[in-house]
Design brief:
Number of helices: 21
Radius of gyration: 26 Å
Number of strands: 15
Shape: globular
Largest sheet: 8 strands, parallel, barrel
Bound molecules: 4-O-methyl-beta-D-glucopyranuronic acid
Helix content: 25-40%
Number of domains: 3
CATH superfamily of the largest domain: Glycosidases
CATH architecture of the largest domain: Alpha-Beta Barrel
């Protein structure tokens, strides 16, 4: 009897505790609103943005009690675009949206305990855009966080519920808090249906939810739309009827959505239709759409991700296609270029197109969703990858012509500048699947606003806001330090256990999660197989892109082309990207290539093991829900890093015919079982 009583009391106690501390589901992202502290906000102007800014400051205030803050519109020429100035007791901006951005920055600085001194911040890019690869049936291409927040939720995908509107508002707020001001709502592999009236009505509703936070709506369009949903026989961009169709469509869209941003186009790429189907060029296609949008100030973001099944090295094709077209595009066209010349690999050199185009604006496209970096199972902080790309020197106008400078208007003036990130957001309650994937969304926004920010700052900001303790109003210092270190080392660790020293695209077919360096298939194009990229044989390994090979090195300006071309000066992180290197080749540290490759793979695995140890020590520093989620995902990551190492070393060993050095841990799988495992549909 006494026992039963005790059980009941314990159960009641547990129940009451559960109701006191709300379970942490991560939905609040980095916007925690802990304040009960009073702040007085006044403003010299009234608008919806100002009301929002006021509301945010009141909800999130962590500063001194009863302070007074004034929101002013200002003509200070040092403030540009939607930038702002923070002063001791004022936020100044040229635009009302700038006041909202200033409010978010002020709050951020309070979380970080930074002084509230005079400080001006202007956006690096005028358009800071998320690309959603969301299909109209609600699935998301390369999405790892549930279904689309925009499409396919009801039977025909078109109904709109209050819950939808709530979600879109929360999404818009999160974006605005980091300065994102645009969203492409549908997949670049676009269904033409998006331009039908019923879908445009829904786009209008979404735009209405995003607009209050300063976010413009854009759409991906299918180049064959005039045929697929119009009544035209062809989509030839020089055909007057086709031109008229697009003009009418643009007019229809702007009637519904007056501040519509424009079109994103994937044309003549991976089976998508495009102007080349009619013997026309990318310029013909882009300019035809640009003409249709120009009367409404809309823009065309034309993707440079094109390559054909030709014997030419795939990484050279986009440059060869677009360089001759430089200068021929209309003013409202911008080329959207992936960070590397191949496809969002764990590491690639920057795309040579950034340094090549001199009369056409170019915008970087980063991938926030972790298609090639562990999906939402692995903790990989991508800020360091993007920082590496933005800081790469193209030598376009001599030293200092970084990718950032080539794209943000500092090297040459353009009407507008832009940057895009492929979103990792879905209907999962925490938005991104992995708690730490939220940091990648956050980091993209922060870098789009300020492309000189350092990843370590971004990580610190994100951790302090995301894990702030409700009662203490601060984040445990040891937790911040440990977590920041894990984040900053995570991408290099992934490179090491997946494809170190410049290896690339040796993923399992289809899901792109696990390894399959053995993958080859005569029935598909060679550049969709792994063996095409690593070219391992008994002599060595790597893709020869030197002057003696595919000569991709000469798409870069000097001195880079020669630096990359010479085996001895090529940075080792790109070694096997640019060279086929003998197994016995001595690296800078004196080790031979095979030994170093083994050590790198092992190092990557050991790193993840150390992340696990460090994370386990953090128990009790944050809420138990997010602690447990990350702990469990690190276990998976550890298991899968080991799979990468074993698969690659055992497979490449067949060519190197050398021992795995005895100082590293031995493989724990055998090759055949890994081949089976990574083929299985469940392994991703
Ligand atoms: O990275 C590849 C992906 C495709 C994607 C394509 C692209 C949207 O595997 O899923 O398609 O690139 O960027 O167009």
């Amino acid at each position: 009897m006494a026992n039963i009583k005790r059980i009941i009391i314990v159960a009641l106690l547990m129940l009451s505790q559960a109701t006191i501390s709300k379970a942490e589901d991560g939905h609040a992202l980095w916007l925690r609103n802990h304040s009960a502290v009073n702040v007085n906000i006044s403003s010299t102007t009234r608008s919806a943005f100002v009301d929002l800014a006021t509301d945010e400051l009141k909800k999130g205030w962590l500063g001194k009690e009863n302070m007074s803050i004034k929101l002013n519109l200002s003509k200070n020429p040092a403030i540009k675009g939607d930038g702002f100035q923070l002063e001791e007791s004022a936020i100044n901006a040229r635009t009302e949206l700038g006041l909202l951005y200033g409010a978010y920055e002020l709050l951020r600085r309070q979380y970080l305990n930074l002084p509230q001194r005079n400080f001006i911040s202007n956006p690096a890019y005028s358009r800071r855009i998320l690309n959603h690869w969301d299909n109209l049936d609600g699935t998301i291409e390369r999405g790892y966080a549930g279904s689309s927040i925009f499409w396919g939720n009801a039977a025909n995908g078109l109904d709109i519920t209050n819950q939808d509107r709530e979600k879109w508002k929360a999404y818009a707020r999160a974006n605005a808090s980091v300065g994102i001001n645009g969203a492409v709502l549908n997949n670049v592999n676009a269904s033409a249906k998006i331009l039908t009236r019923a879908y445009l009505e829904k786009v209008k509703a979404i735009a209405e939810s995003l607009r209050p936070y300063g976010i413009k709506t854009y759409l991906s369009v299918n180049f064959s739309s005039p045929v697929l949903i119009g009544k035209l026989k062809k989509a030839d961009p020089l055909d007057p009827q086709v031109k008229q169709w697009w003009k009418d469509k643009a007019a229809e869209i702007y009637k519904l959505i007056p501040d519509f941003g424009g079109f994103l186009v994937k044309a003549n790429s991976e089976g998508q239709p495009g102007p080349q189907d009619y013997g026309r060029t990318h310029v013909d296609g882009a300019n035809m759409l640009a003409d249709a949008l120009a009367p409404f100030d809309g823009i065309v973001m034309w993707r440079a991700f094109v390559y054909n099944p030709s014997p030419e090295d795939r990484t050279k094709q986009a440059y060869k296609e677009f360089l001759p077209l430089d200068g021929a595009f209309k003013k409202n066209v911008i080329l959207q270029v992936k960070n590397g010349p191949l496809d969002f690999q764990p590491r690639e050199p920057f795309s040579p197109l950034f340094g090549a185009m001199s009369k056409t604006p170019v915008m970087p496209e980063f991938q926030i969703t972790q298609e090639y970096l562990g999906a939402s199972k692995q903790l990989v902080f991508l800020s360091t990858l993007w920082e590496e790309c933005l800081n790469s020197d193209t030598y376009k106008n001599g030293k200092g012509s970084t990718v950032a400078a080539c794209t943000d208007g500092s090297l040459s003036k353009t009407d507008f500048t832009a940057i895009a990130g492929v979103a990792n957001i879905g209907n999962d309650v925490n938005w991104t699947g992995h708690t730490f994937a939220q940091a990648n969304w956050y980091a993209f926004g922060r870098l789009a606003w300020n492309n000189k920010l350092e990843s370590k700052t971004i990580a610190e900001e994100w951790i302090k806001q995301t894990f702030l303790d409700d009662k203490e109003k601060k984040t445990d210092a040891n937790f911040v330090k440990t977590t920041q270190e894990i984040m900053l080392e995570s991408r290099e660790a992934a490179v090491d256990y997946m494809m170190p020293l410049g290896l690339h695209h040796i993923f399992a077919e289809g899901h792109h999660y696990g390894p399959a360096p053995w993958f080859s298939n005569d029935k598909i194009r060679a550049d969709w197989t792994s063996v095409y990229y690593h070219k391992a044989d008994t002599v060595g390994i790597g893709f020869d892109r030197s002057r003696g090979g595919s000569d991709a090195v000469d798409q870069y300006h000097e001195p880079l082309s020669s630096t990359f071309n010479n085996l001895s000066s090529c940075p080792e992180m790109y070694l096997l990207w640019f060279h086929h290197v003998p197994w016995s080749y001595r690296l800078k540290n004196g080790k031979d290539l095979w030994t170093e490759l083994c050590i790198r793979y092992d190092h990557g695995v050991q790193k993840v093991r150390s992340f696990q140890k460090d994370w386990d020590k953090m128990k009790g520093s944050i809420d138990s829900e997010r602690f447990a989620e990350v702990q469990s995902k690190l276990r998976t990551q550890s298991r899968d890093a080991q799979i990468w190492k074993d698969a690659c070393l055992l497979y490449f060993q067949q060519f190197s015919r050398r021992e795995i050095p005895f100082e590293i841990e031995r493989p724990v799988h055998d090759l055949q079982s890994l081949k089976e495992l990574t083929k299985s549909k469940d392994y991703n």
